[in-house]
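Anyone up for a design puzzle?
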């Protein structure tokens, strides 16, 4: 069965058609305990917010639950590889 996850990429500020980096692995993927629901194996973004060096990610889970994840922005940027 397919799994839908949330990734991240860094785009050029002046020309967003230019991809500067992407993550090799999903930023957020459904946990085993989050795989059941109306639409199984899915997490989807509900936007994001920045607080200092923390990225706050509200997300939907299988059209059944909501969650909030956090990530260090500097750590995410450090893991962005060239496309």
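Challenge accepted. My sequence:
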């Amino acid at each position: 069965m397919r799994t839908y996850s949330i990734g991240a990429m860094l785009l050029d500020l002046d020309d967003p058609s230019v991809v500067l980096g992407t993550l090799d692995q999903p930023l957020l993927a459904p946990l085993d305990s989050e795989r059941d629901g109306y639409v199984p194996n899915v997490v989807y973004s509900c936007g994001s917010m920045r607080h200092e060096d923390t990225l706050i990610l509200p997300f939907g889970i299988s059209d059944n639950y909501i969650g909030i994840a956090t990530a260090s922005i500097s750590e995410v940027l450090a893991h962005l590889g060239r496309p």
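A detail worth pointing out: The chain is about 10% helix and 35% strand.
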